[in-house]
Specification:
about 270 residues; Probable electron transfer flavoprotein subunit beta; Rossmann-like_a/b/a_fold
């Protein structure tokens, strides 16, 4: 039996173009940021999110109506969308910024995503948002939580397992917590952020890469969404951490105490 229209799922996956995880980061000469003239790729946690959306379609088959990916950034961000489309997404939305614009902050991104979801409501109402728990460039780990708050939707963060029941519009999520694992049962619509243990993303095959070139990408601007992505914070200075000084060995406790005194470290009474 085919699912009814009311039980079909529309999945939205936000993705971000970041410096490739294997690149050694260097600070800019002006110390206002890092050198961006290096290899970029899709944020690894977002790759996991795209993979999970595609796997849900493979498990639920006809119950997943669409997988749409969205990114916010300059011209080259379209490459990230094409990668997601080659992995199995159906279409993309590019919220276009000037290449010289600063990277949007998490609250701005969350507001833009909320506007996209509200905009899609009439055509393909979003049932599930899957996104990486954090981006490896700023490590903020805030966008998913902020988006859920703005939408007043349930959220399940740091997911290591996701099981969706399209008929009941429910999801069982296993998530990482300090004490181990926690299981949540959530009603859709839902925001899920992905952890590393959720899956291992697939490599896009050459035929799928070629097919992705024909998949539609809609280009819009922040103005079209009615959002302002101007930064609220100012970076005063970026510097590399101090280089570690090599350690040394001591023969006995007396030498250790002498070395500590030379370093200006004195005993403290309990």
């Amino acid at each position: 039996m085919r699912p009814t229209a009311s039980r079909l799922l529309n999945i939205l996956v936000p993705v971000k173009r970041t410096i490739d995880y294997a690149v050694k980061i260097r600070v800019n000469p002006d110390q206002k940021g890092v050198d961006l003239n290096v290899k970029h790729s899709m944020n690894p946690f977002d790759e996991i999110a795209v993979e999970e959306a595609v796997r849900l379609r493979e498990k639920l088959k006809d119950a997943v109506k669409s997988i749409k990916v969205v990114t916010i950034g300059g011209t080259k961000s379209q490459e990230t969308l094409r990668t997601a489309l080659a992995m199995g997404a159906d279409s993309g939305i590019h919220v276009s910024l000037a290449d010289s614009d600063p990277t949007p902050e998490p609250l701005g991104v969350a507001k833009a995503l909320r506007a996209v979801i509200e905009r899609e409501k009439a055509k393909t109402p979003v049932d599930l948002v899957i996104l990486g728990k954090q981006a490896i460039d700023d490590d903020s780990s805030q966008t998913g939580q902020m988006l859920a708050g703005l939408l007043n939707w349930p959220q399940a963060t740091f997911a290591s397992k996701l099981v969706v029941d399209a008929e009941k519009k429910e999801a069982n999520v296993t998530r990482e917590i300090d004490g181990g694992l926690e299981e949540l049962k959530c009603r859709l619509p839902l925001v899920v952020t992905t952890d590393l243990r959720l899956n291992e993303p697939r490599y896009a095959s050459l035929p799928n890469i070629m097919k992705a070139k024909k998949k539609p990408i809609e280009k819009i601007t922040p103005a079209d969404l009615g959002v302002d992505l101007a930064p609220r914070l100012e970076t005063l200075k970026v510097a590399e951490p101090p280089k570690r000084v090599g350690g040394g060995k001591v023969e006995n406790v007396d030498q250790l105490i002498e070395k500590l005194k030379e370093a200006g470290i004195t005993a403290v009474k309990a």
